[in-house]
Every structure is written in structure tokens, then in C-alpha cells.
Amino acid sequence: MKRFMILLLLWHAFTFVHAQGTPYNYLSKPNVQRFIAMMHHRYGFSIKSLEKTFRHARYDKETLARYTGHFKPGSTVGTWERFKLHIVNKPSFRIARDFKRKYAHTLHKAEKRFGVDGDCIVGFLGVESGFGKFTGDYRLIDALSTLAFHPNRKEHFFRNELKHLFLFAREHGYAIETLKGSFAGAMGCVQQLPSVARRFHFDFDGDGASVWDIDDCIGSIAKFMHTHGWKKGMPAAVEATFDGKRFRKLKSSFRRSYPTTTLLRSGLKPTQPFPYPRAYLLRVSGKVRDRVFLGTPNFRILTRYNPSTNYGVAIHLIAASLKD
Question: What is the pLDDT of residues 70-97, one digit of tens each?
């Protein structure tokens, strides 16, 4: 357990600890001035307060580097070996069990209200924040200003998230410069981007809504799953065996499903009954061999939160560990 916690701390140190950024004259940039004018005219923000905020925003070179240059799919999510090392392993599964016991009442409440599976909610919390322990220490105004106003492959996306950050802070009375999260602008124990937080977070325990409160995060993820059509009792995935160490007979993707009969003819053998007519072919690559899963519509919902097979499989395996 001690070794696991050290590794988890190192992982999040690698993910979240960084230089505090450098001073930058954002007000000299035309795109910042256009943003300020838009926020003033469309949403009623004070030009003076916006200028004050950007006067103190800092440039984060490390953050920008993640979204420039050659894009490697999954590079901002992590390899399967990294998931195995830090979160999909027996020590983590034990922590998941403790977490489930501690928050049993809230998980049951979420299951009953939204018709979802509490074990998958635990999986979300495990993957996103180490069960609520690591929520990020990037100043969000710095991270999102860097990504919103400097050329990168998702510049327009992050400019929209910066808009939602200002709206989120105003709606909840937060001082925007105090809000912290991930390098990509995600906040709280289920790492919601500002646009997602504004849509799905809510007060689930009666003491005011907070993306940093575990009970509210449980309710928020349950609401997300329900909104996207989660079917309670349907597994997100079922593992399948195959001959050999690597499976390359069909293209794997969480975006494209195959008839289940096609997958069976390719040599895949589900380890549990799979009574569904179609399935997503999911493959995660270890150093020695692949693991292959047949994904259901519930798996596709996991990837709507974060578009990564590794991410979805990690949530599924944490949830599955709670049923053993």
C-alpha cells in the first residue's frame, strides 16, 4: 500500500506540479481584446475587471507544449501501461472498496435517483482524481488563457472553456484567480471542464453545489451517465480471449461497433455471456500482450466524458473489481 501511494503521488506530481508560469502582457493581444469585448457585450462583465484579471494571468509554456507539435492520440490521457502502474491494480482496487464503503449511502442515493451503477461512479472518481485526492494545482486562469490565446490545435475549444470559466466563477461567487485544476482547465474530483461543470454539477447533499465535494461529484457523474442514456445492469464491457499475444484481425475503436457474430468469427471468445447484437472492439496494449474487450453502449458513454479507450477500460476494470 505504501509503495502504491508513493507511485500515485509521483504520477500526480508529474501531471500537476509545474512551473508557475511567466508574466505575459495578454492585454496587448488583439484576440484577448476581442474576448474582453465579447464578454462585456454578451454577458455583462465589466471591462475593468476583465482587464484586471488578464493583467495578472501568466503564460504557461509547459501547458501549451501539450497541444502543439505533432499530435499523438491519447498522449494527454496516458498509455495503458501508465494506467496499470498508477490506478488499475490491486492496491487501487482495495482503495476503491474502502471508498465504496465510506460513500455507500451517497452511491445508493445516486443509483436510485438516476438509474445508474454506483461501481462505475467509483471508477470515474478513481481515474479522474485518485478517489478525490488529486484535483490539480494549475491556476485555471493561467492554463486556459495560455491555451485560448496562443496557437495550438484546440485554441477555439479552450477559448470557449475560458468563457465558461468566467461564467462559472461569477455564478458561484468564486474569485477566478483562486480556482485551480488540471493543465487542460478541468476542475474538481471528477475533473470537469467549466462547460461540463456548468451543465452537470449540482448540490447533491444539501450544503451547496461544489465540484470539489465528493458527494456532489457522485451526483454529478450519475447525472452525466443518466443524461447520456446509461442502462443500469448492463456491463460497460466484457473481456474476450484470443489466440496469440496481439490482436490485429479487426480495427479496434470505441466509435465503431461490429456485429457480435463478426467478432466471434474473428476468434474472440467472451469470458462472460454477451447477449448483445453489436459491440465495440476495444484493445489496450500492454508490453507483452493485448487485452481485448467487447464494449456495450454503456462503454460509449464512458468515452463521452473522455474520448479514450484506455480511459474507459480503466473505469470499467475498477468497477468490475468491486463486484468480485
Answer: 545 444 556 899 898 889 999 999 999 9
- The CATH number for 2-70+136-180, chosen from 3.30.450.30, 1.10.8.350, 3.40.50.2300, 1.10.10.60, is 1.10.8.350
Instruction: Report yes or no: 223 and 217 within 8 Å, Cβ to Cβ.
Output: no
CA distances from 67 to 142, 183, 313 (A): 15, 11, 24
Locate 300 and state its grid cell: 460509449
pTM above 0.70, yes or no: yes
The domains of the chain are located at 2-70+136-180, 237-295
**323 grid coordinates:** 463486484
Q: Dihedral angle at the C-alpha atoms of 275, 280, 281, 285, nearest 10 degrees? A: -120
Q: What is the pLDDT of residues 177-225, one digit of tens each?
A: 999 999 999 999 999 999 999 998 888 988 888 999 999 999 999 999 9
